[in-house]
Structure formats: C-alpha cells, structure tokens
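Give me structure tokens for this 118-residue protein.
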Amino acid sequence: MGKAEKKRRKKKRLKQLMVLKEEEKESQVFLDLIKVLEDLEKEGKLVDIQICPRCRSPKVRRVRTISGDLWGHMGILPPKFECEECGWRARLVLKATNRPLSIKDVEIVAEASNLKDA
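Here you go.
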C-alpha cells in the first residue's frame, strides 16, 4: 500500500466522520422537536410543524413570489418551500404533528413505508 492509497483512505475516513457528526446533530434537532411536540400535547395544544425531509430541521418556510415561486403564488402549482438550514427547496413538505392519527393516516404511513422498503 503506497502513500497515495493511505492518504486516500485517511480522507475517506475523515469524510465519514464528518457525515456521522452531521447526522448526530440532525438527530438531536429532531429529538428536541419531538420533545417539544410531546410537551405541547400535555398542555392540550395540537399542532403541525413543517420539517425538512433532508435535515429534519423545523426551519421550513414558503418561498416568496419574488424568490422564484410565481406558479405557486398564482395557485397553478402547489407552493414551494425551502429550508433555512440546508437550502433544500421543493413543492413537497413533511409535517411533524402531535395530533392523533386516523385509520386513514395510519394506512397512508404504512403504504409509504412499504414503498420505501421496496
């Protein structure tokens, strides 16, 4: 094994460590969000919070018309959302909620998880 190979492996290992640290940070934000939702439920407050599908951050907002969502503003397409943390942009948005799920909601979640496994 030459110097170039060792250097390449070291770079790869450092990159993997950086990814693991980033995932740990993301999971902590998500765990904090879950705790807040549980606290609100104990107080009797039921809410839906938009979250980013990439980084799980609750800092998701609707893209303004001037920033590039004219079709969403006019109602031709669904509105576009963006994450302030990672820059993700799309017309799809996920919501974290502390509301009780109906049977239909549970079926939709089960179907989506089956699609993900396939």
